[in-house]
Design goal:
Radius of gyration of chain A: 17 Å
Largest sheet of chain B: 5 strands, mixed
Helix content of chain A: 40-55%
Oligomer: heterodimer
Number of helices of chain A: 7
Shape of chain A: elongated
CATH superfamily of the largest domain in chain B: NADH-ubiquinone oxidoreductase 51kDa subunit
CATH topology of the largest domain in chain A: Glutaredoxin
Number of domains of chain A: 2
Shape of chain B: globular
Distance between the termini of chain B: 37 Å
Largest sheet of chain A: 4 strands, mixed
Largest interface: A-B, 36 and 52 residues
Strand order of the largest sheet of chain B: 6-5-9-7-8
Strand content of chain A: 5-15%
CATH architecture of the largest domain in chain A: 3-Layer(aba) Sandwich
CATH superfamily of the largest domain in chain A: Glutaredoxin
Structural class of chain B: alpha/beta
Order of helices and strands of chain B: HHHEHHEHEHEHHEEHEEEHHHHHH
């Protein structure tokens, strides 16, 4: 058994093998691996007795269940109306410059992916960004750089 | 229409939720439901279905199992009230779910929390553990569980949310049957917005009269508003329903408000000349709470384009009118702006949005025409030039 297969099995023991356990298991894999590899999806399908296509079909519906490799830290900058009005473009430009990536890409050292997200629910405190599960309201380009520097220090 | 802005404090007021429940558990479910019906409370997620009726329908179904779902998949752009409510008064939300459980005869409740709010999970799990223990101590059979979303706006639609909970793509179901008959795992389910559940608890606490006396005939009570955009007072406010938009802008505007988007991206854009005769409530423009203010420095074309990009991405793709319609509306306004299509093409696009309203399967596709038509009608020249 590979490491992923074992992890999936553990999750299936924990959440159950019903269809309604699929989302929690997919979420657990993404939480730990940052994305769903083909290997992981095949393992989930086997554990839950589903077709792999069904697992991929479900996963690919959801923005936060990535099926392409992502960095160890995922940065999501809110792009919806008020955050747009309050300057999300400057945040993205600064981060692109700092991380030497374009929107949607992952750094070559695999530490960061830079993405946009639809409304994150902080419209009164825009612009906001989400790094993994942490929220950072009212960011400025300077603050964004500081925040990412902290993650850089923490990420091996 | 009510004349002035009146602030209310029902949602965030700290109460002893256990003693409210204790009192409520001594009553029959019919009495609880009757109070909610009598109060005139309508769903606070945006659709505005009478809450008491929903509970009554769920209660009247015969089933070995029923469910309560708290819809915390708050994805409407401009709305952030449910996050504030869950952060500040989580006990009241849980107690509202238990009250609903008592009313309809359910023993399990689920919170469906959007992934963007996952940072609340640790705190909520702790509160839920504590609450479940308290229910046990009160000899009331009811347990709350929490489920996470994974970043899909459409899952805020009640049947899409249930599909997601069941481990499927979040694609809305055909209605009828409604969730009160055929909901989560095909069992009768009452699915209510976070804020609705807290209001129901407060109605159980204070009686229906105090709630009914607030607001207007069609829009009883108060509502938590999420105010953002060009305003010096962005944030969360609980206000009495039925105010005029003019009074609202007078209170929250920056002195240069040219338009207000009422009800989020799927709501209506009201231009300055209509502020006076626009009522915020079910008799005028209903809202899930989102109020986005725009001043004269903003291009309404950019705002419309943002909305359309949002819907184009978030359309689940299941039904053709919505999937193709959202793409074509976006392409269409871009083409008109660039001069590739004549200005009269906007009329074609407006017809398309009417088709989407009639033919789309769920509220997403049905409501794209709201922002589209209200912005095009009010700010046509900004879209063209």
């Amino acid at each position: 058994m590979t490491r992923i297969e074992e992890f999936v099995k553990e999750q299936a023991e924990k959440h159950g093998r019903e269809r309604s356990s699929l989302m929690p298991i997919l979420q657990a894999v993404v939480q730990s691996e940052r994305f769903l590899s083909e290997e992981a999806m095949v393992a989930i399908a086997t554990e839950l007795d589903l077709s792999t296509a069904d697992v991929f079909g479900t996963a690919s519906f959801y923005t936060f269940l990535d099926t392409v490799p992502r960095g160890k830290n995922i940065i999501r900058v809110c792009k919806t109306i008020t955050c747009h009005m309050k300057g999300k473009d400057a945040i993205i430009a600064t981060l692109e410059d700092m991380l030497k990536v374009k929107l949607g890409e992952t750094t070559s050292d695999g530490k960061f992916s830079l993405l946009q997200a639809n409304c994150l629910g902080w419209c009164h405190k825009g612009p906001v960004m989400l790094v993994n599960d942490e929220i950072y309201p009212e960011v400025t380009p300077e603050k964004a750089v500081e925040i990412i520097r902290e993650y850089l220090k923490k990420t091996k | 229409m009510k004349n002035k802005i009146k602030k209310v404090d029902l949602i965030f007021e700290k109460v002893d939720h256990l003693s409210i429940l204790k009192k409520a558990f001594e009553r029959t479910s019919d009495e609880i439901i009757l109070d909610v019906i009598d109060s005139g409370l309508r769903g606070r997620g945006g659709a505005g279905f009478p809450t008491g009726l929903k509970w009554k329908f769920a209660k009247n179904e015969e089933s070995d199992q029923k469910y309560v779902i708290c819809n915390a998949d708050e994805g409407e752009p401009g709305t952030f009230k449910d996050r504030e409510i869950l952060t500040n008064v989580p006990e009241k939300v849980l107690a509202g779910m238990a009250l609903c459980g008592k009313a309809i005869g359910a023993t399990e409740g689920y919170i469906y929390l959007r992934a963007e709010y996952n940072f609340l999970l640790g705190m909520l799990n702790e509160k839920i553990r504590e609450f479940n223990k308290q229910m046990k101590n009160m000899n009331f059979e009811f347990s709350v569980f929490i489920r996470s979303g994974s970043g899909a706006y459409v899952c805020g639609e009640e049947t899409a949310l249930m599909e997601s909970m069941e481990g499927h793509r979040g694609e809305p179901r055909n209605k009828p049957p409604f969730p009160t008959q055929h909901g989560y795992l095909a069992k009768p389910t009452s699915i209510n917005n976070v804020e609705t559940l807290v209001f129901a608890l407060m109605i159980a606490n204070l009686g229906p009269t105090m709630f009914k006396e607030l607001g207007t005939f069609d829009s009883r009570g108060s509502k938590v508003f999420s105010i953002s955009g060009d305003t010096p007072k962005a944030g969360i406010y609980e206000l009495e329903l039925g105010m005029s938009l003019e009074d609202f802008v007078h209170e929250f505007g920056d002195g240069d408000t040219k338009a207000v988007q009422v009800g989020g991206a799927s709501g209506f854009c009201v231009a300055r000349k209509h502020f006076k005769d626009t009522v915020i409530g079910f008799e005028g423009i209903p809202t899930g709470g989102s109020m986005m203010l725009f001043n004269s420095t903003r291009s309404m074309y950019n705002i419309l384009k943002d909305y359309l990009e949002f819907f184009e991405e978030e359309s689940c793709g299941q039904c053709t009118p919505c999937r193709v319609g959202c793409q074509q509306l976006l392409k269409g306004v871009e083409a008109v702006k660039k001069g590739i299509k004549p200005a009269t093409y906007l009329n074609e696009l407006q017809k398309l949005s009417e088709t989407m309203k009639i033919a789309s399967k769920c509220g997403l596709g049905q409501s794209v025409g709201n922002p589209f038509n209200s912005i095009v009608n009010n700010f046509r020249e900004e879209i063209i030039y």
